[in-house]
């Protein structure tokens, strides 16, 4: 089904963009154009992003949340 009539993007194109790494409507717009013009489809695009991410198991390094540890040792204390 067409999601974005401005550029002729389909729900499959949005899902493919998410599968390729897009996780926000701006990233989807950069990859396939959906939601990048008038913006009327952004709510639908976000719904497709959520549904696609929910149906795809998280893999390490695939946009999954990662815990970061910062070294906050003052300079000159090494």
UniProtKB/TrEMBL annotation:
<dbReference type="InterPro" id="IPR041854">
    <property type="entry name" value="BFD-like_2Fe2S-bd_dom_sf"/>
</dbReference>
<protein>
    <recommendedName>
        <fullName>Bacterioferritin-associated ferredoxin</fullName>
    </recommendedName>
</protein>
<dbReference type="InterPro" id="IPR007419">
    <property type="entry name" value="BFD-like_2Fe2S-bd_dom"/>
</dbReference>
<keyword id="KW-0408">Iron</keyword>
<keyword id="KW-0249">Electron transport</keyword>
<dbReference type="GO" id="GO:0046872">
    <property type="term" value="F:metal ion binding"/>
</dbReference>
<keyword id="KW-0813">Transport</keyword>
<dbReference type="Pfam" id="PF04324">
    <property type="entry name" value="Fer2_BFD"/>
</dbReference>
<dbReference type="GO" id="GO:0051537">
    <property type="term" value="F:2 iron, 2 sulfur cluster binding"/>
</dbReference>
<keyword id="KW-0001">2Fe-2S</keyword>
<keyword id="KW-0479">Metal-binding</keyword>
<keyword id="KW-0411">Iron-sulfur</keyword>
<dbReference type="InterPro" id="IPR052371">
    <property type="entry name" value="BFD-associated_ferredoxin"/>
</dbReference>
<comment type="similarity">
    <text>Belongs to the Bfd family.</text>
</comment>
<feature type="domain" description="BFD-like [2Fe-2S]-binding">
    <location>
        <begin position="2"/>
        <end position="50"/>
    </location>
</feature>
